[in-house]
Amino acid sequence: LGGADATKALSMTSNDYRPPRAPSVPEPPAEVIARAVAGDTAAFGAIVVRYQQLVFSVAYLVLGDVAEAEDAAQEAFLRLYGALPRYRAEAAFGTWVFRLAVTAALDHRRRLVRRPAVPHAEVPLAVAGEAGAEQLAEARELLAAIARLSPALRAPLVLRAVYGYEYAEIAALLGKPVGTVKAAVHRARQVLMAAQDTRAKGEQKG
Amino acid sequence: MNEEMAPWRRESEQAGAQLDERLARLASLELAVSDGLVDRVLSAARRRSGRGLRADDLREWARRGDTRRRTLASSAIIAGAAVAFGLQARRARRAREARAA
Questions:
Q1: pLDDT under 50 in chain B at which residues?
Q2: For A61-70, what is each residue's pLDDT tens digit?
Q3: Less crowded by CB within 10 Å, the N or C end of chain A?
Q4: DSSP-based helix, strand, coil % in chain A, nearest 5
């Protein structure tokens, strides 16, 4: 499924579609959006600063690699820059950015399938969203386990289990049959549960 | 039979639910981005606005060790050198022709 197709798949849903667990970032002031739409680079920079962690986090979860996620995040923002003149204020800006982040990450992933990336062990630090150090360590372990999944399992799992997309939406985004998506999510959960089990046994021994 | 399987099944379901909770929590996790992302985006946006490929972009990609872009940058530098070499050769030929005339 090409980039345009992935975008089309998302636009088949409501213009303001937001999956159940899409992260929420406070919207920039309407005046900043208006200036960015009018071509003000400084205002666009303020928007990038505001959404960079969200966009990078989506890309990292889908791609499992810091360098590739940065490239996908950059691409997402460039698409945003190109699409700004078409932005209509009736759609939530953050939802729009999130959708662009998802489609840019999926399109980048498709290019990587043709040019496999060298697996990267680095896991980025979390800066928000988790309370304690224990939860943070647990999240990093889970991020590393997700990064080790094959791309064919990782993207369906992330879209379904992290962001709460419906199977049919994931199937449309990935250009795969719903049954294939369900099987991939099931398999990915099995792999992660096995890793969780190994970790629990290790803690019992320790 | 079902009753014998129940404890195993219960454990498995608990582990599954625990995993689902941990995965759902990742949605609100914001990961730290490298400092240069904003600059990279803005300079790329300016390039797309028609300002063209700049030497500092090539240097930045080389510094970051971005292999793919470094290759592109090297290609651009080689292409630039080839064009410069071609121009120089053409100028020299014209000078020779002018002298001969």
A1: 1, 51-58
A2: 999 998 899 9
A3: C
A4: 70, 0, 25
**Which of A48, A97, A138 best tests the B interface by mutation, with the highest count of B CBs <10 A?**
A48
Q: Helices A93-114 and A3-11 sit at what angle, rounded to 10 degrees?
A: 150
User: Can you give the C-alpha Rg of chain A in angstroms?
Assistant: 18
Residues A48-62: what's their mean pLDDT?
95
Q: What is the pLDDT of residues A61-107, one digit of tens each?
A: 999 998 899 999 999 999 999 899 888 877 789 999 999 999 999 99
If you measure CA to CA, which chain B residue comes closest to A22? Answer: B27
Chain B CB contacts of A197 below 8 Å:
15
Put simply, the answer to whether B26 touches A61 (Cβ < 8 Å) is: yes
What's the rounded Cα separation, in Å, for the pair A7 and B33? Answer: 25
Q: Is B82 within 8 Å of chain A by CB?
A: no
Report pLDDT for B3: 56
Determine which of A25, A40, A44, A74 to mutate to test the interface with B (most B C-beta atoms within 10 Å): A74
The overall pTM is greater than 0.80: no
pLDDT given at position B52: 43
* ipTM of this complex prediction, to 2 decimal places: 0.85
Residue A2 has pLDDT above 50, yes or no: no
The rounded distance, in Å, linking the Cα atoms of A86 and A119 is: 37
| Cα distance between residue A132 and residue A145, in whole Å | 20
DSSP string, chain B: -HHHHHHHHHHHHHHHHHHHHHHHHHTT-EE---TTHHHHHHHHHHIIIII---HHHHHHHHHHT-HHHHHHHHHHHHHHHHHHHHHHHHHHHHHHHHHH-
Beta bridge partners of A126: B31
Q: Which of B24, B38, B45 is facing A81, going by the closest CB pair?
A: B45
